[in-house]
Amino acid sequence: KEGHSGPTYESLQAVFDLQAFRPAVNLSNPTITNISFTLYAVLGVNEKTQILTTFLWLRLYWHHEFLVWDPDECNGVSRISLPVRQLWSPDIIVYEVDDDVSQACPYVYVNYTGRIRWDRMLRLVSSCNLEIFSFPFDVQNCTFTFGSYMHTRDVRVSPAVTFKEMSLNSKRYLEASGEWEVVDILGETSILQFGIDEWDIITFWVVIKRRPVLYVVNLLIPSSFLMLIDILSFYLPPHSVDRASFKMTLILGYTVFLLIMNDLLPSTANGTPIIIYFSVCLALMVISLLETVVITNVLHHSSMKYQEVPKWVRVVILKYIASLICYRWPEPELQQICQYLGDLHTHLISLQKENELQDQWCHVGYVLDYLLFRIYLLLISCYAMVIICMWCIWINQ
């Protein structure tokens, strides 16, 4: 109408009165609802209960055949906002959701062609089949199925944008936050049939992968260091008691490490994560301790007199296994005695020279000690005189 800036309240009231009815002139024609969403954040993944908590930006489009006007007759107004509670809206739900905390915008945008856009922010707690065998390098594939709750084929659903665009938008918002990142978003439309009723649904597959840096730094690297120390402990003398004590201390430390890091490890009954590597490492440490016990027991026999090595041990171990591992036998006893005497002579000479040098350094240390002690006494005396003089001056004032 002339003089108005857009559709009037009187013209919209008739539309508001039809809120309970699907906005189609011919009810045999279905209402097409276009759906798109952006995965803004992955708030939590509970492997034990198989629950995924996400935050979505959901956008719905549909056509309202009773809200059409000519912009030329309304001073060029081509879009208006209306309260969503006054209009019919499709009852689109997510089938996998256990809990839905929706912060829907109370208004919708209406185009002059009757196209409506409704934005919703959803905090979804949904079920997802979580596989953690490859933890912390796991990739999860969760499903979001959108469809009408009450309406059958009279409400159709389809994607508003391409799945690639949804994936790119989600990657842009999710790449700088949280433990997870989006790999891809795929989808397809299908028909859900239950008896004689059919529902139009659209299924999205959201593929996310974990960022493993936290777990590598806090779990894998410390565990690898402990295993490296356990390997280096084999360079300790086998007959030393300290070797067995060291290994037992290492096992105790590794057990405490696993208890502290237990909260970071996922738990589920559906699969065993690759982080069982920790239990394998602990088992290997126990095996290395048992090996030390066995070797210590064997070496104990060498101190027992008149205890002959069994023949099968000499053949199997001293002949075949020694050749296999390239074990070098010690030199003849006479050469060893000569070598020991030469080493002893060299050692005595080095001890004599070391004693002489030690005496020289001791005298240097004594001289410097006396010098610094006297300088210290001089500084203390000067400081005491300054304090006494200042005290006297203060009293005389």
From TrEMBL:
<feature type="domain" description="Neurotransmitter-gated ion-channel ligand-binding">
    <location>
        <begin position="20"/>
        <end position="212"/>
    </location>
</feature>
<keyword id="KW-0325">Glycoprotein</keyword>
<comment type="function">
    <text>Forms serotonin (5-hydroxytryptamine/5-HT3)-activated cation-selective channel complexes, which when activated cause fast, depolarizing responses in neurons.</text>
</comment>
<dbReference type="GO" id="GO:0005230">
    <property type="term" value="F:extracellular ligand-gated monoatomic ion channel activity"/>
</dbReference>
<keyword id="KW-0628">Postsynaptic cell membrane</keyword>
<feature type="transmembrane region" description="Helical">
    <location>
        <begin position="375"/>
        <end position="395"/>
    </location>
</feature>
<dbReference type="GO" id="GO:0045211">
    <property type="term" value="C:postsynaptic membrane"/>
</dbReference>
<dbReference type="Pfam" id="PF02932">
    <property type="entry name" value="Neur_chan_memb"/>
</dbReference>
<keyword id="KW-0407">Ion channel</keyword>
<dbReference type="InterPro" id="IPR036719">
    <property type="entry name" value="Neuro-gated_channel_TM_sf"/>
</dbReference>
<keyword id="KW-0732">Signal</keyword>
<comment type="similarity">
    <text>Belongs to the ligand-gated ion channel (TC 1.A.9) family.</text>
</comment>
<feature type="transmembrane region" description="Helical">
    <location>
        <begin position="248"/>
        <end position="268"/>
    </location>
</feature>
<dbReference type="InterPro" id="IPR049944">
    <property type="entry name" value="LGIC_TM_5-HT3"/>
</dbReference>
<dbReference type="InterPro" id="IPR018000">
    <property type="entry name" value="Neurotransmitter_ion_chnl_CS"/>
</dbReference>
<dbReference type="InterPro" id="IPR006201">
    <property type="entry name" value="Neur_channel"/>
</dbReference>
<dbReference type="InterPro" id="IPR036734">
    <property type="entry name" value="Neur_chan_lig-bd_sf"/>
</dbReference>
<protein>
    <recommendedName>
        <fullName>5-hydroxytryptamine (serotonin) receptor 3A</fullName>
    </recommendedName>
</protein>
<keyword id="KW-1003">Cell membrane</keyword>
<dbReference type="InterPro" id="IPR006029">
    <property type="entry name" value="Neurotrans-gated_channel_TM"/>
</dbReference>
<feature type="transmembrane region" description="Helical">
    <location>
        <begin position="274"/>
        <end position="300"/>
    </location>
</feature>
<keyword id="KW-1071">Ligand-gated ion channel</keyword>
<keyword id="KW-0813">Transport</keyword>
<keyword id="KW-0472">Membrane</keyword>
<keyword id="KW-0675">Receptor</keyword>
<feature type="transmembrane region" description="Helical">
    <location>
        <begin position="213"/>
        <end position="236"/>
    </location>
</feature>
<keyword id="KW-1133">Transmembrane helix</keyword>
<keyword id="KW-0812">Transmembrane</keyword>
<feature type="domain" description="Neurotransmitter-gated ion-channel transmembrane">
    <location>
        <begin position="219"/>
        <end position="333"/>
    </location>
</feature>
<keyword id="KW-0770">Synapse</keyword>
<dbReference type="InterPro" id="IPR038050">
    <property type="entry name" value="Neuro_actylchol_rec"/>
</dbReference>
<dbReference type="Pfam" id="PF02931">
    <property type="entry name" value="Neur_chan_LBD"/>
</dbReference>
<dbReference type="InterPro" id="IPR006202">
    <property type="entry name" value="Neur_chan_lig-bd"/>
</dbReference>
<keyword id="KW-0406">Ion transport</keyword>
<dbReference type="GO" id="GO:0004888">
    <property type="term" value="F:transmembrane signaling receptor activity"/>
</dbReference>
<keyword id="KW-1015">Disulfide bond</keyword>
